[in-house]
Amino acid sequence: MLNNKAILVIGGINMDFVVKAERVPKPGETLIGSDFSIIPGGKGANQAVCIARLRGKAILGGCLGKDQLGQQLKSGLEKEGVITDYISMDEKEHSGVTMIIINKDGDNSIVLDPGANMKFSPERASSLEKILPRVSIVLSQLEIPVETIDFIFNKAKKIGITTILDAGPAKPLPPSLLSNTDILSPNQTELESLLKRRITNVEQAKNEAEKLLEWGIKTVILKLGDKGSYLLTAKEKLYFPAFKVTPVDTTAAGDAFMGALCLSLTQNKPLPQAIEFANLAGAYTVTKMGAQPSLPTLEEIEKMRSKIR
Ligand code: RIB
């Protein structure tokens, strides 16, 4: 059963419809693609599966449609060992879906129709309140209503639980949510959107991220893709270069990073060590196609670490 090392992930659960193409088509253009596949994804689900594959205890809160995709996604999560008791099935909305194009460099372009994800209301999430005393971290992203994240983070902070927010997909964040977030983790695009300014390089991203400290966020972790990651607190400024890999598909690399980071933190690893582990998990994910199929096990991360050393 649950122990105080469990990680509660609240977030999006989607089915990804993926094709490979040379590039994203221009308006009015039809391109011939290849390798069509239907793959379980969603930022919340990916993060929960990553934690479970790394032998952590992940509880996932979210909402699916009461449809075939919803049933498929839920049973896939159960097979991965994710606790799914707090996933609602909405009668009217379809399950979350995405259309993803992977270009020749392995970069993805995603359109998300969140469907039932947006029905994960604070009322639905309130059943999670009773398990909060048994979790050590609450992790979320922004594929579910911001009010729900705000509601759960507020309850979590009242009893001293660490709250971690992945700032994707980019959305404005209300002050109440910012004040209840211990660690905020945007990528470069999300940082641009939060600060409403264009950021063109890593040095600028590192400097601009200081604004988030001024907003009251105590810990910022920038995810900079193949440029690595950056930890920023009032006391520390630490840059972590990325591990060099040949990219196949970058989808879910950020989710692997967040899941692995949380798992490491529940093992009481210091932040820099947790970020190094998270970087490895993210790098591994980039070498495989798809969201959930590309998430690493502990053995796969260790194998990769030994090759890199
Ligand atoms: O972060 C990757 C995920 O973002 C995909 O699995 C897709 O579902 C979108 O939510």
How is this structure best described in words?
The protein is of the alpha/beta class. Helix content is 34%, strand content 23%. The strands form 2 sheets. It has a 9-stranded mixed beta sheet, with helices on both faces. Helix 1 packs across helix 9 and helix 9 packs antiparallel against helix 10. The radius of gyration is 18 Å and the shape is globular. Bound molecules: alpha-D-ribofuranose. Alpha-D-ribofuranose binds next to strand 2, helix 1, strand 7 and helix 9. The site of alpha-D-ribofuranose has 16 residues, from strand 2, helix 1, strand 7 and helix 9.
Descriptive key words:
globular, binds alpha-D-ribofuranose, 4-stranded mixed beta sheet, alpha/beta, 11 helices, UDP-N-acetylmuramoyl-L-alanine:D-glutamate ligase, 309 residues, 9-stranded mixed beta sheet, single chain
> Architecture, according to CATH?
3-Layer(aba) Sandwich
Total domain units: 1
Sheet with most strands:
9 strands, mixed
Strand order across the biggest sheet?
Answer: 5-4-1-8-9-10-11-12-13
**How much of the sequence is in beta strands?**
15-25%
Q: Ligands in the structure?
A: alpha-D-ribofuranose
CATH superfamily: Ribokinase
Mean pLDDT over all positions: 96
Give the C-alpha Rg. 18 Å
Here the CATH topology equals UDP-N-acetylmuramoyl-L-alanine:D-glutamate ligase
**pLDDT < 50 runs, ≥5 residues:** none
Helical fraction: 25-40%
Query: What's the total count of β strands?
Result: 13
Assign the structural class, choosing from mainly alpha, mainly beta, alpha/beta, alpha+beta, or little secondary structure. Answer: alpha/beta
N-to-C terminal Cα separation, in Å?
Answer: 37 Å
Helix-strand sequence = EEEHEHEEEHEHEHEHHHEEEHHH
Apparent shape: globular
Count of DSSP helices?
11
